[in-house]
């Protein structure tokens, strides 16, 4: 078993680098993932052998680039149980959620309507809805969380009334790593006639996702968090909803007919992809999907949960306060030490973690802290990274407490 994961680790060249002269323990995967050679090779191959602008060429090279781009769309569709024309390429989760918010919900909601969220949302699944609420007169309501940061189902039932037109929540939150009971909540919301948008930024590539089985109407995720390039992501939308969604960007390639004073648009998803697209990004995402499915999402989920558990136990034993953990993500603090100081001390030892508010200020308020340290493992991390983290935190504790 370990041999398999050892071999997988060798696929990620950056993990062999040093940081500050120390072997790198990269534990900031919730911010962005590292890239395997297969993905890097797919990008290189595209630029060495297939690069041309898509849709516009009558020549073979452009047609090959178009085919590679559309083949990536098909792979993404199969990856989440959707149809190819339900996959819109975006810059990432943030732009995917904004497209659903301002292309669809902005025009559907009004005074008296409610948008249900949780206090554990990343800012990119909160601020767009604040803005939609301001523009439409709709109201934001929040599902109650239990002590672990998971939505309390009995409490949720009370909030999810027939006034709620949209439930928008993260499948896995980016600070505590909590996997929400999305399927149950989606069923509850649907019973009341609401639509469901899932922020899958920390879920896609970490566990099996089937949008239909989850009951999601929209599903957003980012390529860079699942082994692909930055600047590419996906908005899945049910076909009939995408048909009703208005484009947010207008220009070349999204049009059907243009006169001096008006234009008609192509059907979804092309009407949302105006201008020259991130072709290599889409191809990198297709290659990432191939790589991830080659390993198996169930195996990835188990591996990351095991590394997360080991980190949480080791950190607690080292005197840290652990606020929560799930998947490969652990949120913690060392009592009396600011997480930024801790992260800086770890940096000097070659350990990369993130400290701060993690784009989740309301969750910090809910936890009653101003900031936390977050270590996040991916399947290609191993026990040596866990050891480095726990030893690094112990050393930092001694250093800050003046015992060293
Ligand atoms: N939602 C969650 C849960 C996230 O973790 C992130 C990224 N940290 C985002 C949304 C935003 O993703 P992106 O920055 O790739 O648009």
TrEMBL record:
Its cofactor is pyridoxal 5'-phosphate. This is cysteine desulfurase. Keywords: Pyridoxal phosphate, Transferase. It comes from the Bacteria. Belongs to the class-V pyridoxal-phosphate-dependent aminotransferase family. Csd subfamily. InterPro entries: Aminotrans_V_dom (IPR000192), Cys_dSase_SufS (IPR010970), PyrdxlP-dep_Trfase (IPR015424), PyrdxlP-dep_Trfase_major (IPR015421), PyrdxlP-dep_Trfase_small (IPR015422). It catalyses: (sulfur carrier)-H + L-cysteine = (sulfur carrier)-SH + L-alanine. The keyword Lyase does not apply. The keyword tRNA processing does not apply. Its EC number is 2.8.1.7. Pfam families: Aminotran_5. It comes from Lactobacillus nasalidis. It is an enzyme of class 2 (transferase). The lineage of its organism: Bacteria, Bacillati, Bacillota, Bacilli, Lactobacillales. Residues 26-389 form the Aminotransferase class V domain.
